[in-house]
Amino acid sequence: MSFSLAAPFRDRLSVVHQLDPRAKLVTTLAFILTVSLIPEGVWGAFALLFLILTLLAGLARLGLTYALRRSFVALPFVLAAVALPFTVPGRIVFRLPFVGWGASEAGLVRFATILLRSWIAVQAAMLLNATTRFPDLLWAMHALRVPQPLVSIVAFLHRYLFLLLGEASRMLRARAARSGRLPGTPRPAVVWQGRTAGSMVGNLFLRSLERSERVYDAMLARGYDGTSRTLQWFRWRTADTLALSLVLGGLAALLMLAHLR
Amino acid sequence: MYFSPLALHIPDGFLSPWVAALGWLLAIGIVAQALKRTRRQLGERQVPMMGVLAAFIFAAQAINFPVAAGTSWHLMGGALAAMVMGPWAATLIMTAVIAVQGLLFQDGGLLVMGWNILNMGVLTAFGGYAVYRFLMRLAGAGRTARLAAAFAGAWVSVMVGAIATAIELAVSGTSPLALALPAMTAVHALIGIGEGLITMGAVAFLATSRPEVLQAGDAAPGRRGANAVLAGLGVALLVALFSPLASPHPDGLEFVAEQQGFLELGRAAPIGLLPDYTVPFIGDPVVTTMVAVAAGTLLVFGVALLVGRVAARRAGAGG
Asked: How many CB pairs under 8 A join A and B?
């Protein structure tokens, strides 16, 4: 059993890595928004957006296929749209053998569009994570006026996540070590197993609650007064303005062209 | 490899931009309220406590137990968080969890994160808490009543999230409601049992080892707010569902009906509280599923209430 949540950041000396995290966050969001605003079936626009991502990955010295290789995480959700070709009215392109459902052209186009949109959006978010440290991303969120308590809570989650995951994995190992079963004997009842898992969760909750008290005490000892202060980590440079306006302008032009088509 | 405990993390691209925008609008309003209320509830402890407990929920989602055929049950945690910390705090905790899952691990999209927060955070927290508290008020706060209420609350929380997700997909034209609703509710009626068992186990553990934690959860703010938030979100979903503007694509029901046997796919949903999740005499699969879900919920509710009442009477008779 492993749930290694390897940090996605890849440390490289590149132009993309050196950009201000605010610029990277805004461009990533604008990029994903553009992807979801491109009309159905404008394949050229999707190809262009994919090309931009690939070039950016190259520019960031990640290797051209960095995001492509990791981009299949959203794939299981495709099940939610898989019925579209058969439910959207339109000209029947082909029929499934045996069952005889007809797949319509309009349905296939919409299905492929949804697939492309989610696939490209996931790659954009991955590039952001590969080129930006998570604390820098949080700082950018704070700088872009996301409420400070919320940003701090997310920062604390990130700080203690790996610690608590370690505790959870030790509990799971302890359970496995005590769960020997002779071949041929029946499995324990599901309700009993659920109760055991629940006890582990309850135990982890108490440990976390106590840890949060200790953390709070330690913060008080260091002069915490209820507000979080952050340093000005990044300076906005001309390069950031340039990159931001280039990407935003390009995306806007692409959107207009795709709609005027 | 990172796993997702539930098939509810909507990725980008599956919701239309207008639906996604509406989700963000609602989520921002509710999370702002949650920030204000938990600040009042916890004071300076708000940030460290919410942050560490959000990490707890994230880690607790890794605790699983195997069921048949190589699958396993996980915890989602929204209902449990609400039972111990109150629904407003649980909303904040789940928001942080979903934000990190989406931002850092690409589990759930960024533009659609508003709905992910509403489905898996707000609705599970408030839905689960409302059912849990309502059952305890009817059956008393004895140990058995509490455990039955915890199971029912957790089961309902998963179902509410699944129904909301199905509606959002339908309004976005990604999946016809006639198909998404039966499929989502059938699968999650089963997943909800796992959620219920783990939540019940956790509450049982806390009732034995640290009952004051549960009492603090009972007294947490948000009891009155819960109904208002739930009603508001329900209205929002219904408005979205019936608004012709939000749904430029027809549901495609006529087209489906032309194609023989297609609806059987939705009807033949494998597991449910009612056979095939359809009720005879009612034709439309959406209506049928709604009726079946309502009946299933009433059943879970009734059994939990009965168990709690009987236990309370026994305790009373035993002195």
From this structure: 292
Q: Which CATH number fits domain B17-312: 3.40.50.880, 1.10.10.410, 3.30.1330.30, 1.10.1760.20?
A: 1.10.1760.20
B122: distance to nearest CA of chain A, Å?
15
ipTM above 0.90, yes or no: yes
In this predicted structure, what is the pLDDT of residue B284? 63
Q: Which of residues 97-156 of B touch A (CB under 8 A)?
A: 97, 99-100, 102-107, 109-111
A251 shares a domain with A208: no
Q: Which of B279, B281, B285, B278 is nearest to B262 (CA)?
A: B285
Locate the domains of chain B by residue range: 17-312
> Which tokens is B24 given?
């963000």
Contacts of A168 in chain B (CB under 8 A): 59-60, 62-63
Helix A105-131 / helix A134-143 crossing angle, nearest 10 deg? 100
Residues 6+ apart with CB under 8 A from B255: A87, A88, A89, A104
Confidence of residue A21 (pLDDT cuts 50, 70, 90): very high
pLDDT tens-digit series, residues B231-288: 777 777 776 666 544 444 444 444 544 544 444 444 444 333 344 444 444 456 667 7
**CB spacing of B210 vs A160 below 8 angstroms:** no
Is A126 found in the same domain as A138?
Answer: no
Which chain B residues are within 8 Å of A125, Cβ to Cβ? 12, 102-103, 106, 109-110
Compute the nearest-CA separation of A186 from chain B (Å).
Answer: 13
- d(CA A157, CA A143) in angstroms, rounded, equals 19
Q: Where in the sequence is the domain holding A28, given as residue range(s)?
A: 15-132+235-260
Burial A116-133 (b: 16+ CB within 10 A, else e): bbbbbbbbbbbbbbbbbe
The verdict on residue A243 lying in a domain is yes
